[in-house]
Amino acid sequence: MQARNVRGWLYAGLLSLIVVIAGCSDDQTPPQRPPSLVEVITVQPQRAVIGADLLGRVDAVRNATVRARVTGVVTDILFEQGSLVQKGQPLFQIDPAAFKARLDSAQADLQRAQANAKSALMLAERYAPLVKINAVSQQEYDDAMARADQAKADVLAAQAAVAQAEIELGYTRVVSPITGQVGEALVTEGALVEASTATHMAIVQQISPIYIDINQPIAQRARYERLIKSGELSAVQGSEAGITLKFDQITTYDQPARLMFAGMRVDQQTGQVILRAEVDNAQAQLLPGMLVRAHVPQAVSDEAILLPPQAIQRGTDGRPNVYVVQDGKAAFVPVTTGSTYKGKVLIREGLAPKDEVIVAGFQKIRPGAPVRTQPWQHEADQ
Q1: Which of 59, 127, 304, 313 has its Cα between 20 and 30 A from that of 329?
Q2: pTM of the predicted model, to two decimals?
Q3: What number is the average pLDDT over the span 10-39?
Q4: Could you give phi then psi for residue 126, rounded to 5 degrees?
């Protein structure tokens, strides 16, 4: 009986100890996670050139189609296809034999006409003193003068025929009308080319410098013009007006393009206008018909907000956002982005001066998480 009482006391004591331990455990607060360290930049408005990223198509400054101007058989191709040719350089030879014969015939006709004119003139000159003493009639003298004038006209006609024959003979040597890059030969040796249909023989294009025709929505252009007129933005001047060309998202063409003019006609189908730029193309990297991306400066802002690209985050809806520090915690803020300037992204809406934007340390944070900040270590390198 006494052993049973001792066992009951032990059970009661053990139960009390478990209750005490459990009570102590409920009173403890779980340890707080320390704030994450993030790198930030403080928003400071600065001067920036605001541009538009547009699509452009490359076009040759001059396009010359080489055509046949006489009918004949091609006997020679005198150029290397795809090479640079000079204005006046021979490209094709058309059989000249028939045209040489026509020239010889025209020259013989000219000599005959000149001889007849000389004879008619000499006769009229002999009749001149005789008509005064009535040795010949006035009618005979008038006829002699008319024959002399007609012979003179025959000489002029013969000279024109010779000139025409020389021109046609010259056309058998087909030359480049401009300096530029010649494409493939569109005819081969032995082909019959015709003047009546102006047979296409080759195409020569001047591609240095070369044109870039850029399409811009008229609404976008009008918006920048309004902002400049209101004084909110200023016009681009000098070297900042250069247009940057890209072959793709990464590769940039090493020469800036010069804006020549902005079109005054809006395409009714697309609502766009054409901007034409010109750029040096000595290495022939830009070819007619090629599509390029063009960054076209539109205006200058003295209060622009720029962020490095890594500061821009994308939400589940794909829209741009940034993390900012508010009251020691990370906050997700939606922003509206614009073009890039010197490798940074223009923020059009969503941020204000002196906002602290997180640039590095995203893997450690979420919205509402406490953070510790330090200046962005790479900012000095930008």
Answers
A1: 304
A2: 0.71
A3: 59
A4: -70, -35
